[in-house]
């Protein structure tokens, strides 16, 4: 459709080199610090619990060099204040706002040029 109809087009797709598992993160923390992987797991679990607690109160959470998490809800508009209840909430979620430095790291993302008619193939994911 449109002015590009019938033309061969190309686009860039991200190349998935594998998944970064939780156990990989723990091992990296263990290698880079004086913490054992069990210590690192406990710290990350505690961190997760605090983030969950603050988000459930509606509080944005500053994750330092990673960015910020903000709770988000959308709700239907109603005619009266009394009709405005938890049932009018249509969506709940968390919005992630990465720091500029983290976003800049995407400049070096692995990518490849493909024919835009070719949709992403399923590749086996490797763990790093």
Folded structure, characterized:
This protein has helices at 22-32, 37-56, 100-104; strands at residues 10-14, 61-62, 67-75, 89-98, 111-115. The chain has 128 residues and is α+β, with helices and mostly antiparallel strands. It has one domain (22-115): HU Protein, Chain A, CATH 4.10.520. The strands form two sheets. Strands 2-3-4 form a three-stranded antiparallel sheet. The chain has a two-stranded antiparallel sheet with strand order 1-5. Helix 1 crosses helix 2. The chain is flat.
Give a brief rundown of this model.
With 128 residues, the protein is α+β, with helices and mostly antiparallel strands.
Radius of gyration: 22 Å
Low-confidence stretches: none
CATH topology description? HU Protein, Chain A
In what range is the share of β-strand residues?
Answer: 15-25%
* Count of β-strands: 5
Outline the fold blueprint.
Elements: E1 10-14, H1 22-32, H2 37-56, E2 61-62, E3 67-75, E4 89-98, H3 100-104, E5 111-115
Antiparallel strand pairs: 1-5, 2-3, 3-4
Helix pairs in contact: 1-2
């Amino acid at each position: 459709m449109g002015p590009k109809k019938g033309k061969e087009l190309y686009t860039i797709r991200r190349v998935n080199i594998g998944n970064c598992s939780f156990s990989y993160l723990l091992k990296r923390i263990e290698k880079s610090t004086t913490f054992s992987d069990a210590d690192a797991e406990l710290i990350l679990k505690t961190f997760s619990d605090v983030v969950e607690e603050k988000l459930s109160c509606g509080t944005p959470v500053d994750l330092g060099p990673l960015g910020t998490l903000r709770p988000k809800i959308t709700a239907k508009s109603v005619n009266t204040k009394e009709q405005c209840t938890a049932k009018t909430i249509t969506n709940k979620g968390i919005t992630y706002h990465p720091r500029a430095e983290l976003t800049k790291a995407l400049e070096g993302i692995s990518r490849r040029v493909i024919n835009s008619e070719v949709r992403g193939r399923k590749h086996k994911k490797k763990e790093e």
